Each structure stands twice: as C-alpha cells, then as structure tokens.
C-alpha cells in the first residue's frame, strides 16, 4: 500500500483511503519488524499500526446465534459497532432447512 502514518500520531495508516482496502484486500506484513519477512504476499509495512488487518488479527464484533421465526438462524451483535465496522468473517454456504435435513440424513447413513 501507499499509506503514510499521520504526522500527529492521530489516524492510523491504512484507513478507508488505503489502496488495498479499496480493492477489498487486507494488508499483509510482519507485525513485529514492519516488513514482509519471508512472505511473498507482503504489501504493507505499518505492522500493528495498520488499520487494514482486522481479519488476520481476528478483530471481530462479539456475536451470538439467534433463531428468528420464519427466517431461521442468524447472528446478533452483542455490543454496538461503528458504521461500516467489521462484524464477522463468513466462510461457508447458506442452506435452507430442507437442504440441511437432507445433508444430515446422508451423513448419518455414511457414518452409522
């Protein structure tokens, strides 16, 4: 990235204007030495000051699962978050109740 730290120590580098963030890419680097080290994907030298490493640092909002009548399961944020803030990283797929039952039935047959 091309981000520069603020002169007054106020805003951390790699904010909403960070080129990596605008491209939907998280900054990568070594948190200790502020270099890429042996990482060939290195793209930022701001270390822990970087504001675009929330996924790799697991800085998620605290959530709990909740079932809603007619809508199924979802996550509810326990504490408020800032507008545009990261809630959670989602990895997987969304399936309906019918598909869930079918998959669980298949799994039960394969793993008696």
What would your notes on this structure say?
It contains two helices and two strands; from the N terminus they run H-E-E-H. The protein is an alpha+beta fold. A two-stranded antiparallel sheet has the order 1-2. Strand 1 (63-68) and strand 2 form a beta hairpin. The protein is elongated and about 60 Å long. The N and C termini lie far apart (52 Å). The relative contact order is 0.13. This is AWS domain-containing protein. InterPro entries: AWS_dom (IPR006560), SET2_Histone-Lys_MeTrsfase (IPR050777), SET_dom_sf (IPR046341). Residues 1-59 form the AWS domain.
What attributes does this structure have?
112 residues, alpha+beta, 2 domains, 2 helices, 2 strands, 16% helix
Short description:
By secondary structure, the chain is of the alpha+beta class. 16% of the residues lie in helices and 11% in strands.
List the helices and strands and how they pair.
Blueprint: H1 19-22, E1 63-68, E2 72-77, H2 97-110
Antiparallel strand pairs: 1-2
As residue ranges, the low-confidence spans are none
The strands making up the biggest β-sheet line up spatially as: 1-2
Number of helices: 2
**SSE order:** HEEH
Helix content: 10-25%
Major sheet: size, sense and barrel closure? Answer: 2 strands, antiparallel
Distance between the termini: 52 Å
Strand content bin: 5-15%
Number of domains: 2
Number of β-strand runs: 2
Based on CA atoms alone, the radius of gyration comes out at: 20 Å
**Overall pLDDT metric:** 84
| Cα shape | elongated
Helix-strand makeup class: alpha+beta
Keywords: Chromosome, Methyltransferase, Nucleus, S-adenosyl-L-methionine, Transferase
Subcellular location: Chromosome; Nucleus
Protein name: AWS domain-containing protein
GO molecular function: histone methyltransferase activity
